[in-house]
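Preliminary data (for renewal application), NAP complex.
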Amino acid sequence: MRHAHLGWSDPICREVRGTGLMEKPRLMIVGAGGFVGAHLARDADRAYTVLRTATRGNRASGIPIDITSAPTVERAFEVARPDIVVLLAAISDIDRCEANPEEALAVNVRGAEHVAKACARANIRLLFASTAAVFDGGKHGYCETDLPAPLSVYGRSKAEAEAIVRGLMSHAVVVRFAQVIGFPVSPGTNSMVESLFRQWKAGKPTPLSTTEERNPLHVQSLSEAILRLLGDEKAHGTYHLGAGDSISRYALGKRLAKLGGFPEHMVEVQNGAVADRAPRGRDHFLLTEKYERRFGVQSPSCEQEIARCFHGIA
Ligand SMILES: NC(=O)c1ccc[n+]([C@@H]2O[C@H](COP(=O)([O-])OP(=O)(O)OC[C@H]3O[C@@H](n4cnc5c(N)ncnc54)[C@H](OP(=O)(O)O)[C@@H]3O)[C@@H](O)[C@H]2O)c1
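Predicted structure:
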């Protein structure tokens, strides 16, 4: 079996009508300024003409879009003329969603609907990023056919968006993952590792749960998996992505602190739920056999993915 890190098949270039020139497929990444999006945009550049979108606050770095507004979505599609769309844009902070359910509904549900409708109208392939939080975390190991039972506003918004995407486009790809690790291309995204390192550098210990288990994936492994799915024109439906084993947030924090050269006491034990935070499932271990079988790869281990955070860092 090949390791899941290794290459993907490049998509087929097509002729620009009547010119004899070959053009790479046009890949629009909605949410390209985010943690996952910036990595994907960089990695996809070889095989695709990458079209980045950016929100109003961030227009300099991409085609302007606010997915809560159908007209801006339509306009972005007119400007970008994509062949394929990856929808990563979301309110990805679970506590922010819990505190602002209307915002979560507007961005994560209605926003996804606007993008999926634009794709469906023009028959454009769509890959939608969802989450393990669509499950309640009450058992060890979820496969793609398990029924969603979200505990949080965030999980509900993503489960609803998935249903809308599938309803509008039976050939869409939905990818679910539990926890993405690694450093961001540039600061200010949803990168958990960056946020932990910032706190530890400031000498601030972080409580991390000993009871919440996840199977994390390094952001570049995720980007490679997304590119592999995009390169397979027949792939559709839901795919779970993640490491082949799981780890508690506490144990993950301990390993990151050790490999990052921080003292052990920077990671403190957190037991049970924390007041004023969104409910989190206990065990979000996503089974990845469907993806492994389709591509003849083996999911990496947690330890490999944690080590990958430090590749290239002296
Ligand atoms: N990171 C994880 O551990 C994790 C785990 C499971 C699932 N996911 C899912 O994976 C996807 C990517 O996550 P991430 O960690 O990269 O999140 P992120 O860093 O918070 O990035 C989210 C992106 O969404 C964009 N966005 C927010 N509101 C928007 C709006 N109204 N219109 C257009 N764009 C908007 C932001 O654009 P600007 O930068 O232009 O403001 C940003 O680029 C999300 O769907 C998230 O729910 C992430």
